[in-house]
Fold this sequence. Notes:
Radius of gyration: 19 Å
Order of helices and strands: EHEHHEEEEHEHEHEEHHEEEHH
Number of strands: 13
Strand order of the largest sheet: 2-1-3-10-4
Distance between the termini: 55 Å
Helix content: 25-40%
Oligomer: single chain
Structural class: alpha/beta
Amino acid sequence: MARVPVLRIGTRGSPLALAQARQLRDRLAEAHPELAPEEAVELAVIRTTGDKLTGRPLREFGGKGLFTKEIEEALLAGRVDLAVHSMKDVPTWLPEGLEIACLPPREDPRDAFVCHRAATIAGLPQGAVVGTASLRRRAQLLALRPDLEAVDLRGNVHTRLRKVKDGQVDATLLALAGLKRLGIAAEATAVLSVDEILPAVGQGAIGVECRGDDTRVRDLLAPLNDPATAACVAAERAMLAALDGSCRTPIAGLAELDGSGGLALRGLLARPDGSEVYRVRREGRAGDAVALGTDAGAELKARAGPGFIESLG
């Protein structure tokens, strides 16, 4: 007789999403022996709007929420008990009744440079074509090298790697965390410093979402939560909320702890063509993460001037 799952985890079906969901399942089993049998925790693959829209840039359809909407609907309907997301894909505001209840320890948040023609961005020949669907990456890349050509590049990690190998583009930028979770970190030609390319808000962090009133699931997730990751992501997302930008706004942010309770936050706001880039830095206590992020976002918005974000659509 088949065993009824104790938990159902909602996830996208991409190789990276499944790797992250399996990682969470393993962590749950380590913390709770009753969840150790694989059939005790079921992975429910849910195809999102973002997965269906493969031909055009996602910013034309509404951006981040396209990767979470259907999973959150399943969560609210009780078809799944929790959902695993890459935090950089999670919209600033969650649907009523849902919350990010757990943030496991963050993976390396930096971007990776993948290229078979050069070892670094600086080493790319003039006019080289770099593929990326991220306006954040595009803006910072063109600010460093305005002579490069940036083109849209969609698809999962393996698809984008193949397009570089096939010569469809000369190079691409990918999240190092994703390469590591897929076991293919060696595909990175170079790891980019945060001074070169500042990561996306929440990059490298996995968020576990559940219903706010589901005490059973929240109790199961509690041992997996990493307070350091939670503080850093809170600062970054508070900055994002203060900016209130759209999916057409290049925004980057990274918070880091210093080991003694201090938190340093870097933020960036730019035009997609890299012609204007505004940066901010805040330092304070980890307990003030949200206030630091809110203040950083307000400064970026003020420095860019009235109408800057609205002008980007």
